[in-house]
Amino acid sequence: MSKRINADDAARLVRSGDTVASVGVIGWITPDALLRGVADRFRRDSEPRDLTFYFPCGTGDSIDIRGMDHVALEGLMRRIISGSYVNPLHPTKRTRPELMRLIRENRIEAYSWPIGASMQWLREVARKGPGLMTEIGLGTYADPRQQGGKFTSLAKQDLIELIEFRGKPYLFYPTFPLNVGFIRASSADSSGNLSYEDETLISSNVALALAVKASGGIVIAQVRQEVPRYSRPAHHVRIPGSLVDHYVVEPEQMSGTDIRSDRAYLGGSAPDLRSLPKLPLGPDKVIARRASREVRPGRTCIFGFGASSDVPLVMAEAGLFDDGKIDDYQFTTEHGPFGGIVMSGWQFSANIGPEALLDGVQQLDFIDGGNCPFAALAFAQFDREGNVNVSRFGSSNPGAGGFIDIAQNAKDLVFTGTFTTAGLNVGIGSGGLQVVKEGSVRKFVDRVEQITYPVRKGVVERGQTALVVTERAVFRVTPEGLVLTEVAKGIDVRRDILDQMAFAPHRIADPLPFMEPSLFAASPETAEVTAAQKITGSV
Description:
The chain is an alpha/beta fold and 539 residues long. It is built from twelve helices and 34 strands. A hairpin with a 2-residue loop joins strand 32 and strand 33.
């Protein structure tokens, strides 16, 4: 008997009060039709109600592949636990996610866990363990001594505990059952065997299905097509039918945001460097170029969302990967692709021309094991105590994503971002930069709104190195505090740097070198500078 049903039938299997688990990565592998079906049923029948949603990662782009935004309805959603939230303002459609409004207005119980914990926790549910014990997140907003991962005042239950084991502190995430699981794949046969031949990522789909079945729950898959049984090699089937109760065929499902299908994301051939997008000359490009000077061949380098993910693109544009040199580099993200070129923006998480792919749980094991010695990550706030914040600031609450796992386990860190934000306008040229209009929001603050990672503590206790790279200045994080080490030509140190900070750097290098003039060049030919070249000039 076939396990195929339609989206309406799938929605009717969700009962009021259930805990529903689902996963996508922005637009990638998001079971959008299933989540939309639950929302449509609620609008029509006022059922199901008071659901808890468990998303290991930000699912959907909130615009065309709405994902978790479909179910962001008061009455339908009572509680949400997520490794990250889809937060960025869409560059053309200029809309904010509805889920952000519910959290900002304290309409639901909202929690944010590090992605590593949110994915590895599924493994504990799957084996019917008591919970996940980890050092990841100690001293951050996930620590009960701070916010305990709570994002709204309605979130009163302590879902994360601080425990001591053999004289050391740990964070403990107790397990609870998952009643329904929504997952996505490329193809299903009548028995529910799922393959991923057209999917760029796998994420935690396997772990989620295992966790739901161990809870006695129902697993429903969304696929693009149905295929005959026995038509695929066994190693193509990542989830066996014994873990799948039903599947829904959605022929029009998108591969990812703005992408119906693109084989370049699936590997099997070297990336076409000539077809890669090129960043316009602006602050983000300057920052990415400067951060790229820290990238070394022969190391696994991991990149986070934001300006940091632009680094491989500017390296490609500068010709650093020509003549087969790309083989000297190994790039990845927290979502599992290895090799090729990390993409930015709404295509972040995936690589063009990947050579290998781990699923989400295995990838976080890889990261937590210290296998990504170099990491480039964005920052939203940095404070006088050496703490960085990307998880909650102003009206935004994107959560940490993989930031905490990556930052805590890398050896060398680069944090990237503009010096100020909200209205910043700069002029770039003549080997430097001038501030035309300063941003209205400072990013170097007296105290971060939330600690996503205590950078200076990592430098002191773990021996990490850390740089903060902006469009106008570069800082090194030392045990004593920030040291200003480089400044852009055309920048007034007092007016454009010190007066825009809520605290003074521990020290200013003397002499203070200029940032490389090539960072501000219009063409990649003049921008290309090898890591061995020295900066000349000073202010």
